[in-house]
Amino acid sequence: MAFFFAKDAKSALLSLVLGGLLAEVFSFLIELSLYLFDRKKHYPKTAPAAGDGQRLLAISLPVAFSTYIRSGLLTIEHILIPEGLRNSGASHVAALSAYGSIQSMALPVVLYPAALISSFAGLLIPEFSESRVKGHTRHIDYMFGRVFSLSAAFAIGASGVLLFCSEELGTFLYPGTDAARYIRLLAPLIPVMYLDTATDAMLKGLGEQVYSMNVNIADAALSVLLVKLLIPRLGITGYLITIYISEVFNTTMSLYRLLSISRTKIKVFRWIYKPLFCVLGATSLVRLLFLFLPPKSNLFGMVLHLTLTALFYLVLLRFFGGFDKEDRAWLLSLFTREKKSPAKPICRFAELKSSKKKFS
């Protein structure tokens, strides 16, 4: 935008599109370079085994097909939303303004911490795939418990921080808009959205690509239907209801499937209530502390507010056992895999504990 001296909406939008295009090309070239380097380093010299191509297609085709269908349905949804808002009685400008406040202001803030969950989920797929191929069912159950515990702790913490700091974030990032209100309304949905990302990765690692494909397509189709029915009657509230229903539907269906093929039971108190109590305690402590600190309307105050809330949450979570040494060691093992079988090093803490007392 600075290079083209964007002075109006048209030139600004063209700059954004061009920037997105260049970013995609740059990302593709980096990934291609890494792929060629890894292939040269790790690809076997012998001919691939019979059936390898079919197994690769069995993984990639459902993912690609789901992406294509869902992209088409999402395009229809985004076309219907401004039209539905206008049919609800809002003017064209007001309709696009409300839609832009949610889609381009609130949602990017709400989904920003999801970059960590997405990277974490990407590491899970090969771990679950390898354990499934080797028949390590106990290790799969162990990993499921760890993934759900860590994902829930991160998601509930992010939800509490954004909910508590929504006014400061919205006012500082998008002054004079309704972004703060929409961040506050969408923040409670963060645990559902983030857990869905981790659950989808685990399902793909367990060979459930077709099921995930069906759920994602059904989710997109449901969103289109809800947009068509609710937005003309309820306006922007109908769009928020659509987001909530579609996200809860997707996560529920994915989690139900994962629980049906896993023997692990959800530990509600440790995985959900502990992080919830910790984030409530952290936000309350920061609220009391800021009675004696500078106002939060400036950049320094906002950053300090967010940092202290996150720090207090981590301290409370560690103190009350919501994130222990075993969680930390298992998480690090995903980034520093040893040459030996992954089932041994990752589960070594559970095995040590089980030799002393019953492990739960």
Query: What composes the largest sheet?
Result: none
| Poorly predicted ranges | 338-360
Mean pLDDT over all positions:
81
Broad shape: globular
Care to count the β-strands?
0
The structural class is mainly alpha
Short description:
It contains 14 helices and no strands. The chain has 360 residues and is mostly helical.
Structure overview:
- The structure is a single chain.
- The protein is mainly alpha-helical.
- The chain has one domain (58-356).
- 81% of the residues lie in helices and 0% in strands.
- It contains 14 helices and no strands.
- The protein has helices at residues 9-42, 52-87, 92-111, 114-134, 137-164, 166-173, 179-186, 190-205, 209-234, 236-260, 268-289, 299-319, 325-335, 343-356.
- α4 (114-134) packs antiparallel against α5 (137-164) and α5 (137-164) runs antiparallel to α12.
- The radius of gyration is 23 Å and the shape is globular.
- It starts with 8 loop residues before the first helix and ends with a helix.
- Residues 338-360 have low confidence and may be disordered.
List keywords for this structure.
360 residues, mainly alpha, 14 helices, 81% helix
Helix and strand topology:
Layout: H1 9-42, H2 52-87, H3 92-111, H4 114-134, H5 137-164, H6 166-173, H7 179-186, H8 190-205, H9 209-234, H10 236-260, H11 268-289, H12 299-319, H13 325-335, H14 343-356
Helix pairs in contact: 2-3, 2-9, 3-7, 4-5, 4-8, 5-8, 5-11, 5-12, 6-7, 8-10, 9-10, 11-12, 13-14
